[in-house]
Structures are given as structure tokens and as C-alpha cells.
């Protein structure tokens, strides 16, 4: 089985177990803060990379709706066809969203298209992060911006115990390593900021991801890592000319 087939199967299991919808609860606070920093404008075209059940896709769709420059569109992409099925079922009332089954390593979309891209809690799963960054560079419009939000990174030690709990391999890099990686892909204005999760934490914790409530509280205080960057004002090569 290839790493991508493994990801598809694992996240199909998550979707079938209802964990896709649960993620909204865990990621909403930090995602709303990240979306605020995107400063979206009506009419923009946005990619939600690894959209899961599409709850963030729908937030983005409301923000880019109708505006002076036309009707904004949001594309949600995920490697799990089950997640995509859930996302489509929950988004029937939206005219400006589309969900596509595919890989972040081969984004099935034309070059120079999206004004912005968001990826929530998924980047560390991508088997070849360089390839995904090359794909983001290709599909973003000149001066288009991306925002990658991750909870699992080396500088938040409380996230590292997940590495053994997750059933698929993940990358564990530090903030500094990620910044270097983004710069190596020729993105401009590369930034890394921490986004604390300000939701209250119950005194009892019985889950498997943290030792106890105190650890969960500390994890939220250190916060998620939000990486962002901008494609320079150039047109990328068409896919056929791109060398991976
Ligand atoms: C932890 S979930 C987060 C989902 C969603 N962004 C959210 O916050 O609810 C990770 C998601 O990444 C997707 N994913 C993992 N590897 C992927 C890949 N190579 N290409 C596209 N999506 C991928 C999974 O299918 C899953 O939906």
C-alpha cells in the first residue's frame, strides 16, 4: 500500500466513526483566529486543503460570498472520499463550494488560480511536504497567500506523544525548520505565529491524547503553529513543465 492509500484508508475510518465532525469542536477556536488573519475579501477564490468534513470550507464560503469582484468560490480537497462525502452532504445549501477528492501532493486544479489557501491540522501528514509546497505554489495566483495551521510540531512538546498514537507516519519539525522549508520554496513574506486555544478546559480529562487536564491546558496555551507565505508576483509554469 502506498503512503497515500494508507492515509485514505485511515481517514475514511475516522469519517465513518464520526471523528470528522468532532474535529470541528477541537479546531474551531484556532481556525477562526487563523481565518481572521487571512483578511478574506468577497469574490476571492480559496482552497481548503484537507478539508475533512468541510466545516471550515463553509466558514470560508460565507466570507468570500458575493462582492464587487464577483462571486467568491471555495474548493475543499481531501484524500479521504468518506470525508468528501460527509462534506458534500453538509454543504447542500452552499452555491459557492465544491468538494474534490484528491491529494495535496497532486492538487487537481489549474495553476495560478487561488487567491488564498488554508490547510488545518493536516500538513504533517503529507508524505512529501516539498511536493505539496510545490503544488501550492503552482495553484496559487501571483501574490496569492497560504496559511498552514498545525498542532503537531516540535516546539509544542505536549503534541509529540501523538506520534506514537497515530496510525500513520507524521513529520515532526520545529517552527524554525518549517520557516526554512517555506523559504526554500521561494515564498515571500514567510511568517510563523503561535495561535493559543482559548477554550475552557474541564478539570477531568479521560482521552488518550494527553496525560491529564493540566497537560491539555498547557498544550492549548503554547498553541498551534500558523505558517503563512505569499507567492511572488509571477506566473508559475504549467504542470507539464514542472519538474518534481
Ligand atoms: C486531522 S484531519 C483535519 C481535517 C480538517 N481540516 C479539520 O480540521 O477538521 C486531517 C485531514 O487531512 C487529510 N489528509 C491527510 N493526508 C492528505 C493528503 N495527502 N492529501 C489531502 N488530504 C490529506 C485527511 O483525510 C483528513 O481529513
Structure classification: alpha/beta
Overall number of strands:
9
The CATH architecture designation is 3-Layer(aba) Sandwich
Which sequence of strands runs across the widest sheet? 5-4-1-6-7-9-8
The first-level CATH class name: Alpha Beta
Number of helices: 8
Q: What is the CATH third-level topology name?
A: Rossmann fold
What does the overall shape look like? globular
CATH homologous superfamily assignment: Vaccinia Virus protein VP39
The helical percent reads 25-40%
> Could you give the order of the helices and strands?
HHEHEEEHEEHEHHEHE
* Ligands bound to this protein structure: S-adenosylmethionine
What's the domain count? 1
Gap between N and C termini? 22 Å
pLDDT under 50 segments (min length 5)? Answer: none
* Proportion in β-strands: 15-25%
Task: Write a structural description.
By secondary structure, the chain is of the alpha/beta class. The protein has one domain: 3-Layer(aba) Sandwich (Rossmann fold), CATH 3.40.50. It has eight helices and nine strands. The strands form two sheets. The chain has a seven-stranded mixed beta sheet with strand order 5-4-1-6-7-9-8, sandwiched between helices. A hairpin with a 2-residue loop joins β2 and β3. The chain starts with a helix and ends in a 14-residue tail after the last strand. The structure holds S-adenosylmethionine. S-adenosylmethionine (SAM) binds next to α1 and α2.
Amino acid at each position: 500500500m502506498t503512503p497515500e492509500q494508507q492515509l485514505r484508508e485511515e481517514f475514511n475510518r475516522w469519517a465513518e466513526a464520526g471523528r470528522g465532525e468532532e474535529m470541528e469542536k477541537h479546531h474551531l477556536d484556532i481556525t477562526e483566529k487563523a481565518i481572521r488573519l487571512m483578511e478574506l475579501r468577497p469574490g476571492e477564490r480559496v482552497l481548503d486543503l484537507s478539508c475533512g468534513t468541510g466545516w471550515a470550507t463553509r466558514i470560508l464560503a460565507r466570507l468570500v460570498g458575493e462582492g464587487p469582484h464577483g462571486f467568491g468560490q471555495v474548493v475543499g480537497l481531501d484524500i479521504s472520499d468518506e470525508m468528501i462525502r460527509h462534506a458534500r452532504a453538509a454543504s447542500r445549501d452552499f452555491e459557492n463550494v465544491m468538494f474534490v477528492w484528491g491529494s495535496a501532493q497532486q492538487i487537481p486544479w489549474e495553476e495560478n488560480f487561488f487567491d488564498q489557501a488554508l490547510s488545518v491540522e493536516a500538513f504533517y501528514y503529507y508524505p512529501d511536504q516539498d511536493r505539496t509546497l510545490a503544488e501550492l505554489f503552482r495553484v496559487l495566483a501571483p501574490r496569492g497567500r497560504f496559511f498552514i495551521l498545525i498542532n503537531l510540531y516540535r516546539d509544542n512538546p505536549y503534541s509529540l506523544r501523538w506520534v506514537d498514537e497515530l496510525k500513520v507516519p507524521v513529520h515532526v519539525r520545529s517552527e524554525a525548520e518549517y520557516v526554512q522549508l517555506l523559504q526554500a520554496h521561494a515564498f515571500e513574506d514567510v511568517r510563523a505565529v503561535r495561535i493559543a486555544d482559548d477554550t475552557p478546559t474541564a478539570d477531568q480529562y479521560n482521552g488518550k491524547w494527553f496525560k491529564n487536564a493540566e497537560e491539555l491546558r498547557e498544550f492549548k496555551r503554547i498553541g498551534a503553529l500558523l505558517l503563512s507565505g505569499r507567492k511572488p508576483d509571477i506566473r508559475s509554469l504549467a504542470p507539464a513543465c514542472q519538474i518534481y
